[in-house]
Amino acid sequence: MISAILLAAGQSKRMNGHNKLIKEIQGIPLIKHSIKNILSSSIDELIIVLGHQKEIIEKIIDKDKKIKVVFNKNFKDGMASSIKLGLNSLSEKTDFFFVCLGDMPMINSDIYNLMIECKNRKEIIVPTYDGKQGNPVLFAKSLKDKIMTIEGDNGAKKILEQNKNRIFNIEIKNQSILKDFNTLESFDFL
């Protein structure tokens, strides 16, 4: 079983008071683009971790049998707390899981599916563009305990650094794996 954890608990601190996840791209809230692309892939389960302004974001999310929404009451502690909550919410049947960022709406289902196809090459599948590692990252369940040790707001970067020999890098011909929407300016090109 393939699961995805979508991190959507952050406070959008670089957005001058706006919540980036509800800001619209082509008339649709950013978070809905991210969710649609993940659900369009061959994942079996999507765990959405909410925190900041959870009531507003939860109303935007369409109901789907693959979606499980969880609330991180410790979202101010940083990304690690959301990742851990997502990990603790995984189905017992999960073999591999993505860690996805809610503010990366341009990653299409083809990228998710390509990564899933590579899942048996190594325990960590990382998309790269022009040699730079991007997101999402696909992990084997065997790494869950290691990831549970992360702290603060660094996500799983430390796990990648400590487990380079377990990584399969897959070159993606698409900059979307590097493109997050963290500032108002990042929405300007749309």
What's this entry about, in short?
The chain is 24% helix and 24% strand.
**Helicity level:** 10-25%
Q: Please summarize the sheet with the most strands.
A: 8 strands, mixed
Going by helix content, strand content and strand pairing, the class is: alpha/beta
Q: How far apart, in Å, are the first and last alpha carbons?
A: 35 Å
Secondary-structure element sequence?
EEEHEHEHEHEEEHHE
Number of strands: 10
Question: Regions with pLDDT < 50 over 5+ consecutive residues?
Answer: none
Number of helices: 6
Please state the overall shape, judged from the principal axes of the Cα atoms.
globular
Rg calc? 15 Å
State mean pLDDT (0 to 100 scale): 89
General description of the model:
- The protein has 190 residues and is α/β, with parallel strands linked by helices.
- Helix content is 24%, strand content 24%.
- Strands 1, 4, 5, 6, 7, 8, 9 and 10 form an eight-stranded mixed beta sheet that branches. The protein has a two-stranded antiparallel ribbon with strand order 2-3.
- β2 and β3 form a beta hairpin.
- It is globular, with a radius of gyration of 15 Å.
- The N and C termini lie far apart (35 Å).
- The mean pLDDT is 89.
Brief descriptors of the model:
10 strands; eight-stranded mixed sheet; alpha/beta; 190 residues; 6 helices; two-stranded antiparallel ribbon
What layout of secondary structure does this protein have?
Blueprint: E1 2-8, E2 24-25, E3 28-29, H1 30-39, E4 45-50, H2 54-60, E5 67-71, H3 79-88, E6 96-101, H4 109-117, E7 124-129, E8 132-133, E9 137-140, H5 144-147, H6 157-162, E10 167-171
Parallel strand pairs: 1-4, 1-6, 4-5, 7-10
Antiparallel strand pairs: 2-3, 6-9, 7-8, 7-9
